[in-house]
Specification:
Structural class: alpha/beta
CATH class: Alpha Beta
CATH topology: Metallo-beta-lactamase, Chain A
CATH architecture: 4-Layer Sandwich
Length: 271
Amino acid sequence: MKFYVLDLGYEKLDKSALVAGCTNAKTYNPEPKAIWQKIPIQAYLIEHPEGYILFDTGCDPEFKTSWPAFIEEDSPYYVTEEQLLLNRLAQLNVKPEDIKYVVISHLHVDHAGGLKNFKNATVYVNNEEFTTTVCNYVKGEDLNVHVPCDIEAFIQAKLKWRTVMPEEKELELVPGVTLLNFGSGHSWGMLGMKVELENTGNLLCVADSVYMKDNLYPSIKIPGIIYDSVGYVRTAKFILDYIEKNNCKLLYGHDIEQFDTLTKSQDGFYD
Protein backbone atom coordinates (compact mmCIF):
# COMPACT_ATOMS: atom_id res chain seq x y z
CA MET A 1 0.00 0.00 0.00
CA LYS A 2 1.26 3.48 -0.93
CA PHE A 3 0.14 6.79 0.57
CA TYR A 4 0.55 9.99 -1.47
CA VAL A 5 0.26 13.56 -0.18
CA LEU A 6 -1.21 15.77 -2.91
CA ASP A 7 -0.18 19.44 -2.82
CA LEU A 8 -3.14 21.41 -4.21
CA GLY A 9 -1.88 24.93 -3.55
CA TYR A 10 -2.72 27.13 -0.58
CA GLU A 11 -5.06 29.76 0.81
CA LYS A 12 -4.41 32.70 3.13
CA LEU A 13 -6.67 33.83 5.94
CA ASP A 14 -6.65 35.49 9.33
CA LYS A 15 -5.12 33.07 11.85
CA SER A 16 -7.94 33.83 14.28
CA ALA A 17 -10.14 31.75 11.96
CA LEU A 18 -7.85 28.82 12.71
CA VAL A 19 -7.18 29.46 16.40
CA ALA A 20 -9.85 31.60 18.03
CA GLY A 21 -8.46 34.40 20.16
CA CYS A 22 -4.87 34.03 18.99
CA THR A 23 -4.64 37.80 18.48
CA ASN A 24 -6.76 38.94 21.43
CA ALA A 25 -6.00 42.42 22.71
CA LYS A 26 -4.14 42.73 26.03
CA THR A 27 -3.48 45.68 28.30
CA TYR A 28 0.13 45.62 27.12
CA ASN A 29 -0.94 45.17 23.46
CA PRO A 30 -4.36 46.84 23.03
CA GLU A 31 -4.28 46.83 19.22
CA PRO A 32 -2.67 43.54 18.15
CA LYS A 33 -1.83 43.02 14.50
CA ALA A 34 -3.72 40.30 12.65
CA ILE A 35 -1.71 37.31 11.40
CA TRP A 36 -2.24 36.57 7.71
CA GLN A 37 -1.72 32.79 7.74
CA LYS A 38 -0.77 30.58 4.79
CA ILE A 39 -2.64 27.26 4.86
CA PRO A 40 -2.06 24.27 2.56
CA ILE A 41 -4.84 22.73 0.50
CA GLN A 42 -4.21 19.01 0.37
CA ALA A 43 -5.69 15.64 -0.44
CA TYR A 44 -4.40 12.12 0.04
CA LEU A 45 -4.29 9.24 -2.44
CA ILE A 46 -3.95 5.63 -1.33
CA GLU A 47 -2.85 2.96 -3.76
CA HIS A 48 -4.36 -0.20 -2.30
CA PRO A 49 -4.61 -3.76 -3.68
CA GLU A 50 -8.41 -3.34 -3.70
CA GLY A 51 -8.29 -0.04 -5.61
CA TYR A 52 -7.42 3.64 -5.33
CA ILE A 53 -8.80 5.66 -2.41
CA LEU A 54 -8.93 9.46 -2.42
CA PHE A 55 -9.36 11.46 0.80
CA ASP A 56 -10.81 14.91 -0.01
CA THR A 57 -10.86 16.61 -3.40
CA GLY A 58 -9.59 20.16 -2.89
CA CYS A 59 -11.08 23.24 -4.55
CA ASP A 60 -13.09 23.72 -7.72
CA PRO A 61 -10.59 24.60 -10.50
CA GLU A 62 -13.14 27.15 -11.76
CA PHE A 63 -13.08 28.93 -8.40
CA LYS A 64 -12.40 32.36 -9.90
CA THR A 65 -15.83 32.43 -11.51
CA SER A 66 -17.80 29.99 -9.34
CA TRP A 67 -17.02 31.01 -5.75
CA PRO A 68 -18.99 33.65 -3.84
CA ALA A 69 -17.04 36.92 -3.66
CA PHE A 70 -16.56 36.80 0.12
CA ILE A 71 -14.30 33.74 -0.11
CA GLU A 72 -11.76 35.52 -2.26
CA GLU A 73 -11.86 38.43 0.18
CA ASP A 74 -11.52 36.29 3.31
CA SER A 75 -9.28 33.46 2.09
CA PRO A 76 -7.81 33.89 -1.41
CA TYR A 77 -6.66 30.71 -3.12
CA TYR A 78 -3.32 30.37 -4.89
CA VAL A 79 -2.76 27.40 -7.20
CA THR A 80 -0.69 26.53 -10.25
CA GLU A 81 -1.86 24.39 -13.15
CA GLU A 82 0.19 21.41 -12.00
CA GLN A 83 -1.31 21.66 -8.50
CA LEU A 84 -4.89 21.12 -9.67
CA LEU A 85 -6.22 17.80 -8.39
CA LEU A 86 -6.71 16.05 -11.72
CA ASN A 87 -3.22 17.08 -12.82
CA ARG A 88 -1.72 15.80 -9.57
CA LEU A 89 -3.44 12.46 -10.19
CA ALA A 90 -2.28 12.44 -13.82
CA GLN A 91 1.31 12.86 -12.63
CA LEU A 92 0.83 9.47 -10.96
CA ASN A 93 -0.87 8.01 -14.05
CA VAL A 94 -4.20 7.89 -12.22
CA LYS A 95 -7.43 8.88 -13.96
CA PRO A 96 -10.64 9.94 -12.17
CA GLU A 97 -12.35 6.72 -13.26
CA ASP A 98 -9.58 4.71 -11.55
CA ILE A 99 -10.68 5.94 -8.11
CA LYS A 100 -12.77 3.29 -6.32
CA TYR A 101 -13.53 5.20 -3.12
CA VAL A 102 -13.63 8.89 -2.27
CA VAL A 103 -13.72 9.81 1.42
CA ILE A 104 -14.89 13.37 2.08
CA SER A 105 -13.94 14.75 5.49
CA HIS A 106 -16.70 17.37 5.10
CA LEU A 107 -18.29 19.35 2.28
CA HIS A 108 -16.59 22.72 2.66
CA VAL A 109 -15.33 24.55 -0.40
CA ASP A 110 -11.67 23.51 -0.01
CA HIS A 111 -12.44 19.81 0.47
CA ALA A 112 -15.32 18.99 -1.88
CA GLY A 113 -14.55 21.14 -4.94
CA GLY A 114 -13.44 18.23 -7.10
CA LEU A 115 -16.15 15.72 -6.18
CA LYS A 116 -17.96 16.00 -9.49
CA ASN A 117 -15.08 14.25 -11.28
CA PHE A 118 -15.44 10.88 -9.53
CA LYS A 119 -18.61 9.36 -10.98
CA ASN A 120 -17.27 5.80 -10.79
CA ALA A 121 -16.34 5.99 -7.13
CA THR A 122 -18.35 5.32 -4.02
CA VAL A 123 -18.30 8.56 -2.01
CA TYR A 124 -18.22 8.27 1.79
CA VAL A 125 -19.47 11.24 3.80
CA ASN A 126 -20.94 11.81 7.26
CA ASN A 127 -24.72 11.47 7.03
CA GLU A 128 -25.51 14.68 8.93
CA GLU A 129 -23.01 16.62 6.82
CA PHE A 130 -24.62 15.37 3.62
CA THR A 131 -28.26 15.78 4.58
CA THR A 132 -27.85 19.20 6.19
CA THR A 133 -25.84 20.53 3.24
CA VAL A 134 -28.38 19.36 0.67
CA CYS A 135 -31.37 20.41 2.80
CA ASN A 136 -30.04 23.92 3.34
CA TYR A 137 -29.22 24.24 -0.35
CA VAL A 138 -32.75 23.24 -1.36
CA LYS A 139 -34.26 25.68 1.18
CA GLY A 140 -32.05 28.50 -0.08
CA GLU A 141 -30.43 29.09 3.31
CA ASP A 142 -27.03 30.65 3.85
CA LEU A 143 -24.42 27.96 3.22
CA ASN A 144 -21.31 30.01 4.02
CA VAL A 145 -18.38 27.83 2.87
CA HIS A 146 -20.62 24.99 1.74
CA VAL A 147 -20.84 26.71 -1.65
CA PRO A 148 -23.73 26.30 -4.11
CA CYS A 149 -21.48 25.59 -7.12
CA ASP A 150 -20.02 22.50 -5.46
CA ILE A 151 -23.42 21.20 -4.38
CA GLU A 152 -24.96 21.77 -7.81
CA ALA A 153 -22.00 20.02 -9.45
CA PHE A 154 -22.14 16.89 -7.31
CA ILE A 155 -25.93 16.65 -7.64
CA GLN A 156 -25.66 16.88 -11.42
CA ALA A 157 -22.88 14.29 -11.43
CA LYS A 158 -25.25 11.73 -9.83
CA LEU A 159 -22.53 10.37 -7.58
CA LYS A 160 -22.75 7.07 -5.71
CA TRP A 161 -23.08 8.14 -2.08
CA ARG A 162 -22.48 6.09 1.03
CA THR A 163 -23.43 8.15 4.09
CA VAL A 164 -21.84 7.16 7.38
CA MET A 165 -24.46 6.99 10.14
CA PRO A 166 -23.96 8.22 13.74
CA GLU A 167 -23.74 4.69 15.15
CA GLU A 168 -20.89 3.85 12.74
CA LYS A 169 -18.03 5.18 14.84
CA GLU A 170 -15.31 3.15 13.09
CA LEU A 171 -15.77 1.62 9.67
CA GLU A 172 -13.22 -0.54 7.86
CA LEU A 173 -13.13 0.61 4.26
CA VAL A 174 -10.53 -1.93 3.11
CA PRO A 175 -7.93 -3.85 5.12
CA GLY A 176 -5.56 -1.29 6.64
CA VAL A 177 -7.85 1.71 6.04
CA THR A 178 -10.44 2.65 8.66
CA LEU A 179 -12.88 5.57 8.61
CA LEU A 180 -13.55 7.40 11.88
CA ASN A 181 -16.85 9.19 12.35
CA PHE A 182 -16.10 12.24 14.51
CA GLY A 183 -19.59 13.73 14.35
CA SER A 184 -20.21 17.48 14.55
CA GLY A 185 -17.55 20.04 15.37
CA HIS A 186 -15.86 22.13 12.71
CA SER A 187 -18.85 21.36 10.48
CA TRP A 188 -22.13 19.42 10.72
CA GLY A 189 -20.37 16.07 10.44
CA MET A 190 -16.69 15.16 10.11
CA LEU A 191 -14.89 12.03 8.93
CA GLY A 192 -11.28 11.03 9.55
CA MET A 193 -9.21 8.15 8.21
CA LYS A 194 -6.59 5.86 9.74
CA VAL A 195 -4.09 4.29 7.35
CA GLU A 196 -1.85 1.44 8.52
CA LEU A 197 1.42 1.44 6.56
CA GLU A 198 4.03 -1.30 6.85
CA ASN A 199 7.11 0.91 6.99
CA THR A 200 5.78 4.35 7.92
CA GLY A 201 3.40 3.14 10.63
CA ASN A 202 -0.11 4.44 11.30
CA LEU A 203 -1.28 7.78 9.92
CA LEU A 204 -4.44 9.53 11.11
CA CYS A 205 -5.91 12.03 8.64
CA VAL A 206 -8.30 14.38 10.43
CA ALA A 207 -8.71 17.30 7.98
CA ASP A 208 -10.37 20.27 9.71
CA SER A 209 -11.36 18.32 12.80
CA VAL A 210 -8.01 19.74 13.92
CA TYR A 211 -6.60 22.50 11.73
CA MET A 212 -3.11 22.64 13.16
CA LYS A 213 -0.87 21.74 16.09
CA ASP A 214 -1.77 25.00 17.84
CA ASN A 215 -5.35 23.72 18.22
CA LEU A 216 -4.15 20.81 20.41
CA TYR A 217 -0.97 21.85 22.17
CA PRO A 218 -0.26 22.86 24.87
CA SER A 219 -4.05 22.78 25.36
CA ILE A 220 -7.13 22.40 23.17
CA LYS A 221 -8.17 25.61 21.41
CA ILE A 222 -11.20 25.88 19.16
CA PRO A 223 -10.95 27.54 15.73
CA GLY A 224 -12.77 30.71 14.77
CA ILE A 225 -14.64 28.88 12.00
CA ILE A 226 -16.78 26.37 13.85
CA TYR A 227 -20.28 24.91 13.96
CA ASP A 228 -20.27 23.02 17.28
CA SER A 229 -17.65 24.08 19.83
CA VAL A 230 -18.62 21.34 22.32
CA GLY A 231 -18.38 18.72 19.57
CA TYR A 232 -15.04 20.13 18.46
CA VAL A 233 -13.52 19.76 21.93
CA ARG A 234 -15.00 16.28 22.29
CA THR A 235 -13.42 15.27 18.97
CA ALA A 236 -10.07 16.83 19.86
CA LYS A 237 -9.96 14.85 23.12
CA PHE A 238 -10.90 11.68 21.25
CA ILE A 239 -8.14 12.26 18.69
CA LEU A 240 -5.51 12.83 21.36
CA ASP A 241 -6.52 9.59 23.04
CA TYR A 242 -6.77 7.70 19.75
CA ILE A 243 -3.33 8.60 18.44
CA GLU A 244 -1.76 7.51 21.74
CA LYS A 245 -3.60 4.19 21.89
CA ASN A 246 -3.05 3.40 18.21
CA ASN A 247 0.45 4.87 17.87
CA CYS A 248 -0.58 7.20 15.02
CA LYS A 249 1.12 10.16 13.41
CA LEU A 250 -1.51 12.89 13.18
CA LEU A 251 -1.91 14.71 9.86
CA TYR A 252 -3.52 18.08 10.51
CA GLY A 253 -5.93 19.75 8.11
CA HIS A 254 -4.10 23.03 7.42
CA ASP A 255 -0.81 23.13 9.29
CA ILE A 256 1.75 24.72 6.97
CA GLU A 257 4.69 23.91 9.24
CA GLN A 258 3.84 20.21 9.20
CA PHE A 259 2.91 20.23 5.53
CA ASP A 260 6.28 21.63 4.51
CA THR A 261 7.97 18.60 6.11
CA LEU A 262 5.87 16.00 4.28
CA THR A 263 6.97 14.14 1.15
CA LYS A 264 4.68 15.28 -1.67
CA SER A 265 3.33 13.04 -4.42
CA GLN A 266 5.66 14.49 -7.07
CA ASP A 267 8.63 13.46 -4.94
CA GLY A 268 7.59 10.12 -3.46
CA PHE A 269 5.19 8.31 -1.15
CA TYR A 270 4.80 6.67 2.25
CA ASP A 271 4.44 2.90 2.52
